[in-house]
Amino acid sequence: MITEVEIRRGRESGQYVLTVDDGQFHLLRRAVVVFSYQEESAVARALVTGTEDDILAEPLQLGVSYDDVVPGPVELTFAQLHAVYGILTSLPAVSWAEEEFVERVGDFRETVLRMALLLRSGLLRSGLPV
What are the C-alpha distances in Å from 46 to residues 26, 37, 38? Predict the structure, then answer.
């Protein structure tokens, strides 16, 4: 996993474009999938993501099988970026044993939190407005 995430504005879409490596892309995708399945309460999901809607399905290719996913830059609105950040910061707080967490998420809690910090620092470095 690279140590930074570059964030810029898309020329045509105006969305935030996250330049991530394959491992980071799959970590983001897996964290969203695991969070969505483990958190049954719509209210709790909205608290973490800022919305009741499943707004991350398209940019993270959630409807595509793992073998058919094409990792690469991820284009997100600010609301979607907020949702991903919320998931990455809250998922490590679940009460699973570490072994179960790694089995479900595919990585350690520290790596998930590190990814959240990479998003935060990438946004701060970009100097982009909300």
Answer: 23, 14, 14
Q: What is the pTM of this model?
A: 0.92
pLDDT digits (tens, 9 = 90+) for 6-29: 999 988 888 999 999 999 999 999
Angle at 8 between CA 6 and CA 13, to 5 degrees: 140
Q: Where are the alpha helices (DSSP H) in the chain?
A: 22-38, 42-49, 78-90, 98-105, 109-126
Of 97, 119, 118, whose CA–CA distance to 108 is shortest? Answer: 97
The answer to whether the beta carbons of residues 71 and 26 sit under 8 Å apart is: yes
Whole-number Å distance between alpha carbons of 122 and 86: 16
CB atoms within 10 A of CB 63: 8
Q: Which of 48, 11, 23 is nearest to 111 (CA)?
A: 23
Query: Which H or E run contains 12?
Result: none
Gap between the Cα atoms of 122 and 47, Å rounded: 23
Residues in the chain: 130
Amino acid at 12: E
